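Late entry, written up from scratch paper. The run itself happened at the end of the previous shift, but nothing got recorded in the book at the time, so transcribing now.
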Amino acid sequence: MTLRTGHTGLNVTDLDRSLAFYRDVLGFTLLAEGKEDDRRYAFLGTGGDQPVLTLWQQAHGSYDRGRAGLHHLAFTAESVDRVREYETALRAAGARFAHEGVVAHREGSASGGIFFHDPDGTRLEISVPHGAETATAPHATAPTCGFF
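Output as recorded:
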């Protein structure tokens, strides 16, 4: 048996704010949402009926990179031009970026992308496997996605 990632669940502090970010800025489709007592949740997808991302309104503070758990969530785009389109939309929405523009995953790498934070501070990446050949890497030896 081979395991694959099914979906990623994120705790959020404000479901409406997070839905606006993931749906309206990043383009995910709302598949379902619900509420049990005062706890709200939403399932997001990319066009099919399978959730890719689930949001759970149950956090009481922002993302803490100093705690064990999720390091970052990475998405793959179809082209470096599409990564730049996401960057433009994210900047218009006020997202906080770790680096300026598209950066390489490491020096000389063809892969690269953008590194930013969602409204709760969760670290996110949108990258491509090829197309970032001319981009510089922010770190000389460590992978870019490692420390942001």
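The first strand starts at residue 8 and ends at 12.
(Scratch paper discarded after transcription.)
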